[in-house]
Design brief:
Two copies of one chain form a homodimer. The first copy, chain A, folds into three domains: about 30-445, Glycosyltransferase, CATH 1.50.10; about 445-540, Maltose phosphorylase, domain 3; about 545-655, no CATH class. In chain A, about 35% of the residues lie in helices and about 20% in strands. Chain A has helices at about 35-55, 70-75, 90-110, 110-125, 135-140, 155-175, 180-195, 210-220, 225-235, 245-250, 285-300, 305-320, 350-365, 370-385, 405-410, 430-440, 445, 575-580; strands at about 30-35, 405, 445-450, 455, 460-465, 470-475, 480-490, 495-500, 510, 515, 520, 525-530, 535-540, 545-550, 560-565, 570-575, 585-600, 605-615, 625, 630-640, 650-655, 655. In chain A, a hairpin with a 6-residue loop joins β17 (about 585-600) and β18 (about 605-615). The interface between A and B is large, with 53 and 52 residues. β19 (about 625) of chain A pairs antiparallel with β14 (about 545-550) of chain B, so a sheet runs across the interface.
């Protein structure tokens, strides 16, 4: 047990390896978010999202909604209700992800009623735990004799991973141990069953997450077996002979991906992780694995593993990522495909995958203080992650396309995974609770501290309080490029403030107490070192013009096209503003852009208007002609991509012909 | 029996309805093809294609080729060999289509050895016929009790249809009755089992072809029951209650297309054919059905049915056809999708569908003498049909894409139906014998005669002999626009020559005996009426410049792109000539086009070279930048689309950014 060893609540990592890393350090305790942009998002989550999802987990949404069965499964597994198992094999994880999100919300928005609901949910879950610590309702209901026999497909370790994440978060925030103790019992059982020792199963999860979860557990327990198990899962993965291949043969299953180009790389398990040069297979699994790899690498200082993380980062973000931070180019396996293959209308771009990309980015940042990681984190957050949720917090995208024609989604079976409107719930409802846990823990992504340096990664209004010192961050980001950082300290303190200069920013000014200042620029951060006094104020002004963006010409599907960005926000055109047949639009004139803050539109957004042209179809009588289509001038209205599909069914397009 | 009623060999239709039609009339007997372009194609067919496919039907191709089982099935069904049924339920049709193609080849290229092989094949097939006339090896081998119980899926009537087509062709050419007599026995059985009368099955085929086959049978038998059955199949289709729905329930099957947007329209059987406004479902089935509808309509003069044909023609060719004459936009169901949805890289564009489009076009032409039908026939022939066969006659495309990146075919499961190279054979080998029967019967597509008018639809070198009159057609079409038509007659004759002015032609001159002449232009034909003397010569000169073609802007996937055509030939760019990353090419300058006849290239083609630009990728370091890619001038070499993929694996592209 870990009684004596748990050293603090939410303290950040304490491992050995990270001392030698040039990373950005730990997330300080005491970050309180207070932000124009995110306050609304998070209040929606607390007011609407969390209760709505609790109803979903209890099958109390309207009858036309995909049922969850999640809470019922726990009651059935505990013998409190008669019934069969419902939903996917990983259905338990929905509760754990919801609980983790609730824990984070209680951190910034205490709510005794919600906490009581969560406590009761934990009691329900834990009641199903077996005497030996096992807890996975799928096998408890369907027969424990089969447990641990199909790690590839049946998600036991995935469920355990989310249980760990929930337990650590809930314990860290509330101090309550019920779920943590249950989790430690389950982890002990897993550790007795799986590992390198003879007689144990030499396996690893089909769907990673337990790796990074164990590292979080290790963070609060300091128990070496938690680190060791995480390390084992990372390093055993893909070793020959392939465990998943053996398992498939043993179970007499037909290998589902046998004819797929990725085969065992669907699970990122076709070769050892250090041999993997490309982001391949299921995108969410990839992100969770890479995040766990980065955690283990940071803790152990394993140079080869760090290099593997860098290689996979470069593959993911340098050759296989959409401008929105979406990843996963194909519905087949919800997977990566190949370099520069980024189709906009058949994309997968799962919300969870962009969330996973933020996990990975954050961990790379902790390995190396380079702003490119924060740039990707920001790109995903303001675009491909936020797009996953309706503005009212009650509907969700699983797939986040960059080009939608509703008729095509209805009529083209290869686009039926692309929904032109957000859905109330999903049979596989991984994304909604993932949004809750990410957005409710956004505090942990903003700043980090390492020795005497405070790194500012994302510019979100907040107050950072630690050890008698406070820093207030005020900004109207992402709508304005001005960020004010003010010291609220009792006595002068020597500190370095490392301010990220976003990759999108071409010019900025920095002032300290109203005077132009200089700093040292390194790897995307401006380092300001001095002895700060109370009330000292840094004003960072990031120029935020409207920018005409182009894709790397290697990306076939974007060639000859452009889009607009302003700051970190990717813009798009919607039918609601610009009529149907958006593909007819071309000749975007960014120099005509008019930038307007519209508080009543889409919960408050900056819209852009530009002049452009639009082809007419009238001249054409046949399918193929010599005729050149006539174009007429047109005024376009652009909205932030994340806010699309909040005004009814219609076309949407990010990339437009130049 | 039909002894007395068979009135001629290959005489054309003799029905009532067509007398009242403004159509182009009948195909005259005695057309002998002798053509620069097609002689080579057809010699390849006879020398390589027919023997190669016979080897395939007998499973004598190399071991890495998909086996056919076709001839073995007949021997097993006849009890001459032990074994199970192999291949698809429609495997018998491969023999019938091959036999039909052989029959046509014997018409222009007598070959006693080949005829003996065909006779023996017929004996083998007929030996399997049951005493009551039944002949379908799938049910003979697997159990006759189930015959006629699954018309929707099991292709019995499709097989019967191809048997009829083969029998009519083989009888018409050779005068041999073995296959014809067996066919008449089978048709009699079908007529006893299926039809409107009580006690009969009120069904129709899942895969049409028997409709047009029965009309060809009727053409030589004049037996009203053959017309009546064809008419029944056309008119019963899609009537409520849906026969296929009832059949599915009766068989306890799960309906395969239940979640598809087209459902029973996959079979063009979701509603009566006269209610169908759009070309929907499986494209080959659609073309075969529409062809049968046009045959019945011509014969019966049924105005409603003619109107239905026109509506479906307009949907097919006016809104759902590729520039190559390919049809079928999606692999899902090998089907049409929706208006203007014509993706170039995920297209289906089955070779058989373009062949079917030629069937349909020819029949529409016989209904109405409008050149738009011949234009489509020509478009399909020179592009989407010919592209189906390797220049050596031994490899085939099932799918005919307009844009190929080999890596995408390998890595993107949604493009795995698109092969970047032609295949040696297919498990479902419908296309290779379809090419044989179409190209070997090309004589029947060139000219028709109606009363005193001879219509010239396709300009192919040939000699037309009939009733003491001969007309010689000389041309280097499609490489040159000059066509010479010369009369070879014993005594002056009053005739109208109706010369099609192709839709692609903007200017032409016409001379009679060297003097400029005038004609009456109507619906795409130039009518020249006079009393012709021996040696009289018509010289038609169709201007054939290189033309920059654009797609109707409603076609999303072609917008902003162009391609080149010259005459009926659609051009494309290949990696072999223009390097990789063809998507980087833009700025095509058609005015720089250089037209060159290259006798040694691709069995002799006219190539085009043009100046253009090509984006460079060097400037880009990130995935998304403000940078505008630099472009460098480049010289492009274009080849005819039909000849692509004859020089090894590589990219290909028809549409290029303008």
């Amino acid at each position: 047990m870990v009684d004596g060893e748990i050293n603090s609540r939410w303290t950040g990592f304490t491992g050995q390896g990270e001392e030698n890393m040039p990373g950005c350090g730990k997330c300080p305790t005491g970050v309180t978010l207070d932000d124009l942009f995110f306050n609304r998002v998070r209040e929606t989550l607390v007011r609407e999202g969390i209760p709505y999802q609790w109803e979903a987990l209890n099958d109390r949404l309207p009858a036309d909604t995909a049922p969850s069965y999640c809470m019922r499964n726990f009651r059935v597994a505990a013998g409190k209700e008669q019934g069969t198992f419902g939903g996917h094999v990983f259905q338990d994880s929905d509760l754990y992800k919801w609980l983790e999100g609730v824990a984070y919300s209680l951190r910034w928005h205490p709510d005794t009623e919600l906490e009581a609901t969560a406590d009761a949910a934990i009691e329900t879950a834990v009641a199903a735990q077996q005497p030996d610590g096992y807890l996975d309702t799928y096998y408890i209901i369907n027969g424990l004799d089969k447990r641990f026999t199909n790690l590839k497909d049946n998600h036991e370790l995935y469920v355990a991973g989310h249980m760990i994440e929930a337990a650590v978060a809930y314990y860290s925030v509330t101090g309550k141990r019920t779920l943590l103790d249950a989790t430690l019992r389950f982890v002990d059982l897993i550790d007795r069953q799986i590992g390198p020792e003879e007689g144990k199963i030499h396996g690893y999860p089909g769907h990673p997450v337990i790796e990074m979860a164990l590292m979080r557990l290790y963070e609060i327990t300091g128990d070496p077996k938690h680190l060791k198990l995480a390390e084992y899962f990372v390093n055993q993965r893909g070793q020959k002979p392939l465990f998943f291949e053996e398992e498939t043969v043993r179970n007499g299953n037909e290998f589902y991906w046998r004819n797929s180009p990725f085969r065992y790389q669907y699970y990122q398990a076709g070769m050892p992780v250090r041999s993997q040069k490309n982001a391949e297979g299921h995108a969410v699994r990839a992100m969770y694995l890479y995040s766990g790899m980065a955690d283990v690498a940071r803790e152990t200082g394993d140079v080869g593993l760090i290099e593997a993380c860098r290689t996979l980062w470069e593959s993911t973000t340098g050759r296989r990522m959409y401008i929105t931070g979406a990843i996963g180019s194909t519905e087949h396996g919800e997977a990566f495909s190949f370099d520069y293959d980024l189709p906009n209308d058949t994309v997968y771009g799962e919300t969870c995958a962009s969330i996973g990309l933020m996990f990975f980015a954050r961990r790379m940042l902790m390995l190396e203080a380079k702003a490119e990681y924060a740039d990707v984190m920001e790109r995903a957050l303001y675009n491909g992650v936020l797009s996953g949720m309706q503005l009212d917090g009650k509907k969700f995208f699983y797939v986040n396309p960059l080009e939608v024609v509703p008729e095509a989604c209805r009529m083209d079976p290869h686009k039926q995974h692309v929904k032109p409107e957000r859905q109330k719930w999903f049979g596989c409802a991984c994304c909604p609770p993932n949004l809750i846990r990410l957005l409710n823990s956004l505090e942990d992504y903003l700043v980090t501290e390492r020795e005497e340096t405070v790194y500012f990664h994302l510019y979100v209004g907040c107050r950072i309080e630690r050890g008698g010192m406070a820093i207030q961050v005020r900004t109207e980001y992402p709508w304005q490029g001005h960020v004010q950082i003010q010291m609220d300290i009792e006595r002068p303190v020597a500190k370095t403030l490392a301010l990220r200069i976003p990759g999108w920013c071409r010019a900025y000014t920095i002032k300290i107490d109203g005077e132009n200042a200089q700093g040292e620029y390194r790897d995307g951060y401006l380092y300001l070192t001095r002895i700060w006094g109370d009330g000292d104020t840094v004003d960072l002004d990031l120029e935020m013009p409207v920018v005409l963006m182009r894709a790397n010409p290697r990306i076939r599907k974007d060639v000859g096209q452009v889009t607009l960005m302003r700051g970190p926000i990717v813009y798009c055109l919607e039918e609601a503003d610009n009529g149907r047949d958006l593909h007819l639009i071309h000749g975007i004139r960014p120099e005509t852009a008019h930038v307007r803050w519209e508080p009543e539109t889409l919960c408050g957004v900056v819209t852009l208007t530009t002049e452009a042209e639009r082809e007419t179809v009238q001249g054409f009588t046949e399918l193929y002609e010599e005729t050149e289509a006539e174009s007429l001038p047109v005024q376009l209205r652009w909205i932030p991509y994340y806010a699309w599909a909040n005004r009814g069914l219609g076309e949407m397009r990010v990339w437009v012909r130049k």
